[in-house]
Amino acid sequence: MDIVAIHYRRLPDRVQLFRQLVLEDAGDYVVTYLPSADLPKAVTAGGRTILEPGAPVVWITYRERWHDVGRFHLADGTFTGVYANVLTPVVMDDARWETTDLCLDVWLGADGDARVLDEDELAAAEAAGWVGAGTAARARREAAALLEGARRGEWPPREVHEWTLARAREAVSRPGAGHEPGQDQG
Q: Is the CATH code 3.40.50.2000 the one for domain 3-174?
């Protein structure tokens, strides 16, 4: 099983390196798996923990789209919901990918709660000149479209529902699939 190195730029100039197992390349999207999130603290939305240190994440990264989608869990594997990062379209060169996080996130909890997160971060990045007005407007349109799709029951797409944690773990347990992905600070 292949490992991809995702160079994830956070504004203004910090880069995190994520190493994830490639589970499927379906053409317009690639499914990757991070068995244990290396986080300094839990991620929350609406006052609830949605991702804990050591928790598994199944990612669906799209070619030429302004977002990716993660299936978030607690450390014990309990599914908490779907999380989309609004970002620049990922440049996928074999085992090296690059993208820039545009601050906004869309959360769709397992309980149906849908919301846009971190609007203040995008506003601050725009005010500081770290992201241009056109790119910021594009990020806002992307987040609004995802949120509206979630409210209409049209988002996330089929592949996000199909790539459950159980399916990801089954793919990893196949013979010859034993790699250890992770995260590095850059």
A: no
